[in-house]
Amino acid sequence: MDLLLSSHTHTDTEVSMKWTHTFTGIFLCSSASAVMLPLPEHGSGLQITGPKIVAVTHRLDVNDYYITCKVQAESLKAETTVYWLVNGSFVEEAYPDGRVKTFQKRVTSSSRPLKTTLHFTQVLPEDFSTTLTCIALNSAGFDTRRTTLKKKNGLLDHKKRIVV
Q1: Total of domains in the chain
Q2: 34, 128, 145, 159 — which has fewest CB within 10 A?
Q3: What is d(CA 164, CA 157) in angstroms, rounded to the nearest whole number?
């Protein structure tokens, strides 16, 4: 995604009329789309900020393992996307067997963080050497946070699951 700061001025001198129009803004473009965001007037108090990952939490519930990414997106909350990558690949590609899935909790309050959770229904030994990356993205910016599964002890149960 490219970020350009753009300012355009046009002057027309037809029939002794002269006018000048200046537009300044941020131009975001990618291979799929382009968006022009106007810059706020100086002193207007409007501030557009990118999303910020505020926490990544781990939770074990019997044999299920959950990792939740919490994101604040003060401005552009409805346009903010939060997703996980597993060693640089999407979850569905990294775990085609479906033992790891993602889900998002819908948040209606503007003060509550967005939450996207990775749910491991089965944890295998190789999962502990996997890099998991939470990505929060909107047109004003992005934030990332990396984590790995936390191992409390290295015992395997009879089903070859890690007991964490």
Answers
A1: 2
A2: 159
A3: 10
